[in-house]
Amino acid sequence: MKERTLILIKPDAISKKLTGVILDRLLHLDLEMKGAKVREMTEELAREHYSNLAGKPFLPSVISFMRGDLNGITDHRVYAFVFEGEDAISKVRAALGATDPAKADPWTIRGAFGCFKDGVMQNCVHASGCKEDAEREISLWFNPGEVL
Ligand code: UDP
Ligand code: MG
After folding, report:
1. Closest listed residue to residue 12, CA positions, set 51, 64, 59, 60
2. Is residue 148 part of a domain?
């Protein structure tokens, strides 16, 4: 089924100069890039993006990681993309691997480049987990005219 997914390259990956290698892997999935932007990860945006984690004890650390602060990164920009195609959500999630990089297969993006550090699964990339999340996240990150 043709569907859309939201992808975020997180500040840890940007600071490690992994943007190119991550995008290269994602572009090989034969999906179409429909939207791309640079956006500041404000505390408010991070909370909204991870509204499903509200109340979890690790949420403050995750937000600090998503802004870069946890790793001393003062640049709060993230790179956001909308990819579209057949089974886009599951294809991208498979390329990412498990949430915890320590458990992710070593050939996946998270397995290859992520780590578990300071109580957070520092996993380089976000991708939507299901169709409902994807549509909610795309409208949070992109204005309608920005997704072509
Ligand atoms: N996370 C974490 N510890 C946990 C659960 C989540 O550090 O026990 C972080 C991790 O960075 C993850 C993000 O919170 O990517 C969002 O969690 P989710 O369960 O949605 O995982 P994902 O969809 O990113 O695989
Ligand atoms: Mg998720």
Report:
1. 64
2. no
Domain of 134, CATH number, reads 3.30.70.141
Our answer on whether the CB atom of 110 is closer than 6 Å to any ligand 1 atom is no
Cβ(96) to ligand 1 under 6 A? no
Q: Is residue 146 part of a domain?
A: no
Token pair 């795309």: residue: 138
Instruction: Output the pLDDT for position 1.
Output: 87
Domain count within the chain: 1
Residue nearest to atom 23 of ligand 1 (CA): 129
Residues with active-site annotation:
126
Can you tell me the distance from the alpha carbon of 97 to that of 106, in angstroms, rounded to the nearest whole number? Answer: 9
pLDDT of residue 40: 98
Domain that holds residue 49: 2-141
Q: 52, 71, 78, 99: which to mutate for ligand 1, most atoms within 8 A of CB?
A: 99
Residues 9-35 pLDDT 10s:
999 999 999 999 999 999 999 999 999
